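Researcher: We plan to redesign the surface later, but first we want a full-length starting point. Tokens attached.
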């Protein structure tokens, strides 16, 4: 039997993937000669951002600088910057332009935006040699869309997830310029350092990724500075949030923020489960590395669901606390152990749901068998977001969330719980703040047993 929490977690996931109509996905961009077969690049990015908001946090303008290193053996001639905040609206119209815009680029020459105005190629003034660093800078103009969304509005509150431009990755597969398909995640970034300075009205509370300090700015304004190391993204929110801070027994600072309309029962339940799970996952997978974690809660996120960002999670808050543990598990599986979320969505969603189920102690003895037949002959745990966007959207939640977590529970029964626990801890350690692939995980699992796991991978369609 599927537990109430798991059913509700699936409903949350389903809500988050039903936001936009499916899109046809083109094949991935062919390999670029600048990409190395042995390294993801550009790496070790450092983001310096300074933004100023309007009166209610709906509009932010300022300047962003990103420095980076070429870790490819061949010279780098350009970089790609992703404007993921434009994923839903695309290029917009003259009357309603894209919500995220950049301009006045220095340190390189910009080309026209592509991939629905989510990709900006910047040609460098000279080829960047292997191991060398350089930087580019540009103005940033962010207008928060008028919808309840991870990048959107919720009454007097603003959520700015996926709003900040980020460096894209080039690796052995080439330039990763996959589209935002309107559900799930298409992101692929490397960990880096952020220093983000947000100048805003003093009445606005601003939770954000990283360690945050505040000081008085111009009259009636506050300057919030957030510093984060080893994270893949940066998110923030603004509004008249209520707040509370607690420290877990394991020493992690949890900053809870919620709207005045959010149910007290939901806040209490989410905070309780957050305290328990962040420590439990720290013991099982490796200590949470960022010191503090912001929980941004609202009862109004029912159509959107919940969303993880490094050091900050957006939560649709219910008395049952259905999503908080799943989203906190993403701090390890996507945040600490990264993956190409377009190519291999199971490596974060299936793992986060498996961690959710083990935390709540759900009975998974017959989990795999309970799924019945696969939804199609082509269904597999290792399919990409391109597969789901091209005519198989109905399979996404059923396969990635449900079958994926069941497969990992089956693997735990195959290896034994002690061996599974040790294997996962080593797997996380070996890919700490790096990037993993399905091949990496299969190798780690096989190393944990003398039994040949080939039949297991075949049965569970882990290719």
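Model: Full-length starting sequence:
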């Amino acid at each position: 039997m599927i537990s109430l929490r798991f059913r509700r977690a699936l409903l949350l996931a389903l809500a988050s993937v039903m936001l936009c109509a499916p899109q046809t996905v083109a094949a991935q961009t062919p390999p670029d000669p600048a990409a190395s077969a042995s390294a993801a690049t550009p790496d070790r990015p450092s983001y310096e951002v300074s933004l100023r908001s309007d009166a209610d946090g709906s509009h932010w303008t300022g300047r962003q600088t990103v420095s980076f290193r070429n870790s490819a053996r061949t010279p780098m001639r350009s970089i790609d910057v992703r404007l993921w905040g434009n994923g839903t609206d695309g290029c917009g119209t003259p009357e309603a332009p894209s919500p995220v815009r950049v301009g006045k680029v220095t340190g390189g020459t910009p080309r026209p935006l592509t991939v629905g105005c989510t990709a900006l190629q910047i040609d460098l003034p000279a080829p960047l040699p292997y191991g060398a660093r350089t930087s580019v800078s540009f103005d940033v103009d962010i207008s928060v869309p008028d919808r309840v969304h991870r990048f959107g509005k919720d009454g007097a509150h603003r959520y700015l997830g996926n709003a900040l431009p980020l460096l894209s990755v080039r690796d052995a597969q080439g330039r990763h310029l996959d589209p935002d398909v309107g559900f799930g995640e298409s992101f692929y970034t490397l960990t880096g350092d952020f220093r983000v300075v947000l100048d805003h009205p003093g009445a606005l509370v601003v939770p954000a990724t990283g360690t945050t300090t505040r000081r008085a700015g111009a009259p009636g304004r506050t300057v919030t500075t957030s510093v984060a190391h080893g994270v893949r993204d940066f998110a923030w929110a603004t509004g008249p949030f209520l707040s509370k801070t607690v420290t877990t027994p394991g020493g992690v600072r949890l900053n809870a923020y919620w709207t005045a309309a959010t149910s007290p029962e939901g806040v209490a339940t989410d905070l309780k489960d957050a305290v328990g799970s962040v420590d439990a996952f720290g013991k099982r997978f490796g200590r949470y590395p960022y010191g503090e974690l912001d929980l941004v809660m609202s009862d109004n996120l029912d159509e959107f669901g919940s969303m993880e960002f490094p050091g900050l999670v957006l939560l649709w808050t219910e008395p049952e606390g259905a999503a908080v543990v799943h989203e906190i598990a993403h701090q390890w599986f996507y945040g600490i152990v990264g993956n190409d979320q377009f190519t291999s969505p199971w490596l974060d969603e299936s793992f986060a749901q498996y961690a959710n189920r083990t935390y709540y102690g759900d009975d998974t003895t017959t989990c795999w068998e309970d799924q019945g037949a696969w939804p199609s002959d082509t269904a597999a745990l290792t399919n990409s977001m391109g597969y789901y966007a091209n005519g198989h959207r109905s399979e996404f939640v059923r396969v990635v969330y449900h079958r994926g977590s069941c497969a990992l529970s089956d693997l735990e029964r195959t290896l034994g719980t002690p061996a599974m626990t040790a294997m996962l801890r080593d797997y996380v350690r070996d890919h700490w703040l790096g990037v993993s692939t399905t091949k990496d995980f299969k190798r780690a699992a096989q190393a944990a047993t003398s039994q040949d796991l080939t039949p297991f991978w075949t049965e569970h369609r882990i290719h």
